[in-house]
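FORM 7B: Structural annotation worksheet

SECTION A. Query
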Amino acid sequence: TSPVASAQNDDIPPLGFAIGQLHDRYIIAQNAQGMILIDQHAAHERVLYEKLKTSCGLNAPARQPLLIPVSVNVSDLDMASWQEQPDALTVLGFELSEAGPNTLVVRQVPAGLGKIDTAALLKELLHTLQASAAQANLVARRERLLGTCACHAAIRGQHSLSLIEMNALLRQMEATERADQCNHGRPTWILVDLPAIDALFLHGR
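SECTION B. Predicted structure
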């Protein structure tokens, strides 16, 4: 269950309802206890990571075919990394093929990533693959690759969201395990309860 479930009451969900954004980086929400401040990038990154991780636990991860295959020019080192470990990306849901000495063609990507810069993501993944190539723990390597996908596809800071989009993210967070921390161990949200806010304004003194 989600770590925020204990905050729920009959009418207001655990993370409450969004009331706005702060500098297009943080979502401000109100729940029964007070105000919640959510790091939109970190929160969405965690949601995507857990979805990708679940999908990769299946025999055939969900894939999203590209309407137009994307050709990506890569370095010799990147190409060598892919040639040595092609299955490392296949198990995530990618379909790649070689189309020249320094060209890879992407035909399918993991489902659920949304609109992404496919070429930039592939290059990031190949760099991640190089950094983790010596790891004996294949699970740890896969998790690093999934983390790269999630970070790349997550909504960014400096990105304006509608209230509908904000509330959709809050509901996804409530349904996601470990949604209180991003993939790097940092908090995705904080609660400032009403007594703490009242104290800031010297109420009751």
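SECTION C. Observations
The longest strand covers residues 63-73. The helical segments are 40-56, 76-84, 87-90, 118-132, 138-153, 163-174, 194-200.

SECTION D. Sign-off
Analyst initials: ____
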